[in-house]
Amino acid sequence: MNPWIGLGLDVTLIVLVGAGIVQAGRLIRQLADLRESRTDMDRFVREFNMTVMRAEAGIKGLRQAARDSGDDLEKLVENAVSIRDELQYIVESADQIASRLTSGAVRAPSAAEKATGTNPPPAPAEMITPFAAKNSPEPSSSGAPPSRAEKELMQALEKLG
How far does the chain reach from its first CA to its final CA, in angstroms? Predict the structure, then answer.
């Protein structure tokens, strides 16, 4: 064999082994980077998992707070409904009492005239009118329309006076 061929093969082999060593070095660096990345990824996954658990705990807390405030709101609504019903009953009772007072005031002078046969005392309308004129709510001054009880009272007072 020719020494030049042997030398060429030796040089080629040395170049290939050198290239293999360079590639092995690169591969070792890439594997080290991959291990470091894997460590970073593990840390990221653990932190993400802890964040998810904290978020779940926060959501549970929010749900409980919403339930509690919903229960409180429901109790307030129930109280408001019962108070509204009581007020409605009071207004209806006041309307009935006002009607009875009005009808009693209308009948009272005629009963007094029959019993004594003299001039009757001043009509209740005459006694009430100055007071009512001072204290009667006027829609124009307050801006709100009069209630049903106020309207009935004003009608009764007009009938009397």
Answer: 149
Q: Which two tokens stand for residue 97?
A: 């009492």
For 61-74, how does the pLDDT look when each residue is reduced to its tens digit (9 = 90+)? 999 998 888 888 88
**Count of structural domains, the chain:** 1
Does 135 map to a domain?
Answer: no
In-domain check, residue 38 = yes
pTM comes to 0.38
The answer to whether residue 53 sits within a structural domain is: yes
Torsion, Cα of 102, 104, 108, 110 (10° steps): 80
Per-residue pLDDT reduced to its tens digit, 121-160: 555 544 444 444 444 444 444 556 778 888 888 888 888 7
Containing domain of residue 31, as a range?
13-108+122-130+150-160
- Amino acid at site 44: F
